[in-house]
Amino acid sequence: MPLQTRAASFTQFDLQPAVRRTLDVRNLVTPTPIQAAAIPVLLSGRDVIGQARTGSGKTLAFALPLVSRTDPRIRAVQALILVPTRELAIQVASVLAPLAGARQLRHALLYGGRSLGPELRALKSAHVVIGTPGRTLDHIRQGNLSLDRLSLVVLDEADEMLDRGFAPDVERILAHAPEDRQTALFSATLPAWVAQIAARHVRNAVTIEVDADIPAPPEIEHLVYDIESTSRLDVLRALLDRRGDEAVIVFGRTKHGVKKLAQRLDAMGYPTAALQGNLSQNARERVMASFRSGAVPILLATNVAARGLDVPEVGQVINYELPESPEWFTHRVGRTGRMGRAGQAITLLGPEDATKWRQFEKALGRRLERRRWMHPEPGAARAQETSTGEPSRDEKPRLPVVRSSAGSKRRTTGPSKKWPQARWGYQSRRGVPRRRTAA
């Protein structure tokens, strides 16, 4: 779609009046590039293959046409949105709900890890369904969900959905949908193999690539530190001690590693929570609710959270360990700097990461400045730029050594930012001040 024809305001789109009022109430005036390009095409009934980076507003790009074209008088499922993860399903529903409610449209949210009861009740009156492939297919097979009146299918985060092995389930679901439906496919990346698979499900689609060559938003500041492998935890603690008021996401590589790291940081007094695949759905939702509300400002996560996690207040992402691929690096980094906000991405590189990092930079098409993390003395780490020789932040004081009544020594942990430093100069694990014991 030519750039000069793109709308500069949502008022230029042929949206339903109720949808426009909802946008006004939420002070949404100017569409992002992917929204400006995709919304008029979808409103015209054409199929779309859309690519735009994480955090660019893809959800609203398909939600606005979907809500405007769905008829509340027809008591049947008319639109289906398939997503790869439960977190993304919940996120999409949160964007869709106020728009759908303005037009008296009902939606159902389908994902595993919880009882079927609420989903069955929601499906009886749903106009729109948002679901993961496996759960959606279960409902189709059990006769709970009919796609006979379906007019629009959206595949969100299509590259991950197809890459994670959901392709067979997606194929089976689409086999139940009318052939004359409208199909929209959205993704943060659009490699050739995804385009080839997508071509089987769309007809004369309009391909929209907003920023195919941009690996991360320009608003994101990258800091890459070379560290010793044995000091990884110490460096992380120093970074967390210096964090601001915004939320922080720390990414690890494995479920076990993230869980263990969260336990260690919690024992040290840091307000943390872990999001990884072994949690029950209720536990996952509690973790996300605490993180979004700010009650827990530090979230430790595996790559499962790199898709669909939309918390605008995330000011910093820390790659505690490198992900498996450059694409996952891009998606992790995209958790900060959302919707034009400034953000910071910090990556820790041990000696064992050198080869992989060179591969990442080659795939990203650019080199990121690297700095060496120096440890002037035990327990007090500071970042030092090799180019200037000046510390980038103030040095942290050493933590005091306290002798217990039994005569053993131990070093106190750093205080949680949630609690002020006690006037006795010492803080316990849980932030409750205690006096020093006698030497």
Task: Describe how the helices and strands are arranged.
Layout: H1 17-25, H2 33-43, E1 48-51, H3 58-69, E2 79-82, H4 86-102, E3 107-110, H5 117-123, E4 128-131, H6 133-141, E5 152-155, H7 158-163, H8 167-175, E6 182-187, H9 192-198, E7 206-209, E8 220-226, H10 232-241, E9 247-251, H11 255-267, E10 272-275, H12 281-293, E11 298-301, E12 314-319, H13 326-333, E13 343-349, H14 354-364, E14 370-377, E15 380-384, E16 401-403, E17 409-411
Parallel strand pairs: 1-6, 1-7, 2-4, 2-5, 3-4, 5-6, 8-13, 8-14, 9-11, 9-12, 10-11, 12-13
Antiparallel strand pairs: 14-15, 16-17
Can you give me a brief rundown of this structure?
The protein is α/β, with parallel strands linked by helices and 439 residues long.
Descriptive keywords:
439 residues; alpha/beta; Rossmann fold; 8-stranded mixed beta sheet; 7-stranded parallel beta sheet; 14 helices; 17 strands; 19% strand; disordered C terminus
